[in-house]
Amino acid sequence: MAIPFFGKKPPSGPPPLGAGVSDRADELPPPTELSSLNFAGADAGHALAQVARLVEVQESAAGVGAACEEAAVLYANGDIAETERVLEAVLDDPATTAGDGLWLMLLDLYRLTGQKQRFDARVLDYATRFERSPPPWADLSPQAERRAAHAPTVNLSGRLSAQAATQFQQIGIIGRKSGTIRIDFGRVRGADEAGCALMRQTLAELAAARVKVALLNGDALADMLSTQVAPGRAEARDVWLLLLELLQYCNDEARFEELAIDYAVTFEESPPSWEARKAPEASRPDAQAAEPLVEVEGDVFRFDADLGGASNDALRRLAAFASERSEVVVDCARLRRIDFVCAGMLFNILSTLRAQGRLIALQNVNAMVGALLRVMGVDQVAHVTLRD
After folding, report:
1. Is residue 159 situated within a structural domain?
2. Are residues 299 and 359 in the same domain?
3. Which pTM does this prediction carry?
């Protein structure tokens, strides 16, 4: 569930998209002079110079809010080491009482930079202090994406059976070591119930270890398994369940729903719920990797990687996307960082859209980007929620 990061929005203007989600007040300061900066046509160096002067003034304000703003500024400028120093200094100061906003920023900073050991060292303190579960570990660093793009591939062949137990164990070892794995069923010629049970167990163990899994030629194996099940014949339960799981990896929802109904009737129990399995992304050419990927899926616009500069193509595409809709949903789950100039342009675009009566939601924002959006006043023109 996305956790609202900022306080309640002012009542003026149309209600924010997703207003049914309760917001949580935080210790962050109210909008500052940074919120009023106009970055349209601005020179990046001049804009950053303006920002630097304003942040220096803000440092004289109360400690926690000023630290939050300073960390957001530093992270926007790409100064990871100093960002980490500022956040840790405040949280380690016994004289400072910080809410969970700064904690979430630090934990997300660790995730964004792939620092699992530091993350693990802090989550217990977070859980103890706030008596709630901390965010789960996820490596959101660029290095993790590069590892996912070159995921090791395991080719299964022959017949999936109990005799293939050693192969399944190797899949688990390779997957946990690399954090991602591709399993190719192209050479599989058959499967029995014991083999299907082992395959399901392997997939469950990989999921528990948060290993990213892609199944290649899963549709071919699904077609093979479909000949071994029949509605009304309560046999080979693990074959049914593996077939349902394969259809999720193949993103074949229509076929899944049809088979789920047959499963419920045949075994007189609820079938697994539909859950599309997202495979590790394929590697992109180096020439494209420098340009943030932007995707449009249905009525959702998605940001990716880092956004920077005033003449950003992703923002132009967002404006074009939003011009055709009254409600605009932007998924920021893969957005790692946005710099000041780009955040200023985003504010200008969203302000215009809000003035036109459009409702804007920025969803799955990491806490570091979320803090910058608060500093820039973006949360005054859009509904901003953090990722879990």
Report:
1. yes
2. yes
3. 0.54
